[in-house]
Amino acid sequence: MPKISIKGQSMPESPIRKLVPYSENAKKRGIKVYHLNIGQPDIKTPEVALNSIKNLDISVLEYSHSAGFESYRKKLAAHYQKQHIPVNVEDIIITTGGSEALLFAMGSTMDSDDEIIIPEPFYANYNGFATASGVKVVPVISTLEEGFALPPISEFEKLITPNTKAILICNPGNPTGYLYSQDEILQLAELVKKHDLFLIADEVYREFTYDGDKHFSVMNVEGIEENAIMIDSVSKRYSMCGARIGCIVSKNKAVMSTAMKFAQARLSPPTFAQIASEAALDTPDSYFKEVISEYKERRDILVNELNQIEGVKVAVPKGAFYCIAKLPVKNADAFAQWLLENYNYNGETVMVAPAAGFYSTPGVGLDEVRIAYVLNKEDLKKSVQILKEALKVYND
């Protein structure tokens, strides 16, 4: 029998999606499952985006430019400039989701066996993108006790080798909800400049910040224009996860011309989705005020309810719509599976994402889960109640 590639065998399984068969089986048994496992918002997509597709009258569904429609890139550049992020049309390539933007960033800046340092826990697919690119992830651990703040720069310095090419952050963070301060970003900027590294910032949750905290973009740091690469997406901002539209942004012309070759190899990003994403830029500010207010209320309910469960610890998220909770269990993977296979509370159960899959250091995060507060407030309360009752009877 022909053999599967070593790279294919090395591709990590998604900790977010691997429990899906158990969830499906629970539903077939008549159990209602509350999904706290995946960052799929229940917030409505802006009407202006949906109407742009509904009212479309075209006879040929054409390719776009490999960098994306020029009209969209111009409008996107103006959007960033309005947010005081100094970006021009030539600094942007539209991609098939933020995922492809990350693949382009890694492919353009790293060779096989090069290393990328990432504070963990981190978005699980970073492991997959790195494996697909032949790149080695070098984790630097942040902790729940410190609220998942940026680890000391000295910890990064210890990990830098001749093979280190980049540092990757998610800001605000998935799965932690941590928002890096301006001072923390400036510390990283100084580090990458000192060691001639790239600083790749996944900023897809930029708008979602709470308690008066402001997001500070890597594109706002003077002096690292050649080092900084920003990753962005419409998925969360406009609740358009299925559009699969993102972008890679950099002032580094060599990076962008290289990324363009990757973009040309996949021809073009999807046409319908670009049209909707361009239209989404006309979304009124009131939409975001309502959405951010809703997420803040959900965050407060979730954290307050979790804190009332004996043995549970949670770091208060400053942004995005995730939190990491430490549970009084030995193995969150087994607990998450048990919730779906063997437990229900009044015919209902919950699905969480075991957090070990968000670390690349073996044995870390085994008693943690990621919870996405993307459900309405009443469902969140019900979900935490189910968790509380489940923990009372669970034996691991």
Give an overview in words.
With 396 residues, the protein is of the alpha/beta class. It is 38% helix and 15% strand. It has 13 helices and 13 strands. The protein has helices at 6-10, 20-28, 47-54, 70-82, 97-109, 125-133, 153-159, 182-195, 253-265, 271-280, 285-307, 332-341, 377-393; strands at 32-35, 92-95, 115-120, 136-141, 164-170, 198-202, 228-233, 246-249, 313-314, 322-326, 348-351, 353-354, 368-372. It has a 7-stranded mixed sheet with strand order 2-8-7-6-5-3-4, sandwiched between helices. Strands 9-10-13-12 form a 4-stranded antiparallel sheet. Strand 3 (115-120), helix 6 and strand 4 (136-141) form a beta-alpha-beta unit. Helix 5 crosses helix 6 (125-133) and helix 5 crosses helix 9 (253-265). It is globular.
